[in-house]
Design goal:
Layout (H helix, E strand, L loop, with lengths): L5 H8 L3 H22 L2 H8 L3 H7 L3 H23 L7 H18 L1 H11 L7 H20 L13 H22 L10 H19 L2
Helix pairs in contact: 2-3, 2-5, 2-7, 5-6, 5-8, 6-7, 6-9, 6-10, 9-10
């Protein structure tokens, strides 16, 4: 879902890797620290060690740069997630537990990416808010469809509205993940105790199982 036109993106990805990373890292840091409205392209080019003209040669404006970053990181996250999860796992709780574990491992691997994505969900700038909401709706719909396709619904109690129950499970465990990201954002990622987080998550899973499983 990367934006900006094929030719412009091709030009950017044809840059030497080191310069690509300098631009991406500088932009990510600036947006993550100051949010969209307050971020400065002057500061981005200064930190990246390039001219403003060069930045706008690849990205027409700040909005396009921001949305490119969001698409780029979201694509990396989704690709990593689906590369590591067992899509054929039939138990919804086992599947979402695995997703949470993968996310925390990816968060340790790509901390700035997760900070950027998390803050993007909180962005309220009217210039990009609608664009972000559309992207989030599309990616959630697509991802949910893939994740739900192999779920064994025979484990659910009789008479339960299964699609709504699955939504509640999904929303609950997603909210747990976001809450833990918020609580641990000041902790160095190499000091995160993922086992403790999973143990707490398992307590919520057991409660959800009592509510929805036979």
């Amino acid at each position: 879902m990367l934006i900006g036109g094929f030719t412009m993106l091709l030009k950017f990805f044809n840059l030497e890797q080191e310069k690509q990373e300098r631009i991406l890292n500088a932009a990510t840091k600036e947006f993550a620290e100051k949010n969209y409205a307050n971020a400065s392209t002057n500061e981005i080019v200064k930190q990246a060690g390039i001219s403003k003209g060069l930045l706008f040669h690849y990205f027409k404006n700040k909005k396009e740069l921001y949305l490119f970053l969001y698409d780029y990181y979201l694509e990396l996250l989704v690709n990593d997630l689906f590369a590591n999860i067992d899509l054929d796992e039939p138990d919804i709780f086992n599947k979402y537990r695995s997703i949470t574990l993968i996310k925390f491992e990816l968060m340790k691997k790509h901390p700035e990416m997760f900070t950027f994505i998390r803050l993007a969900f909180e962005e309220d700038s009217p210039e990009i808010k609608i664009e972000l909401e559309k992207r989030n709706k599309d990616i959630l719909k697509s991802s949910y469809s893939k994740l739900a396709s192999s779920i064994d619904v025979s484990k659910f109690k009789e008479g339960i509205d299964i699609p709504k129950a699955m939504n509640i499970i999904f929303w609950s465990l997603e909210a747990f993940g976001y809450q833990k990201q918020e609580q641990t954002k000041e902790i160095p990622l190499d000091q995160l105790n993922i086992e403790d987080l999973l143990e707490e998550m398992d307590e919520y899973i057991e409660m959800l199982k009592l509510a929805f499983y036979k």
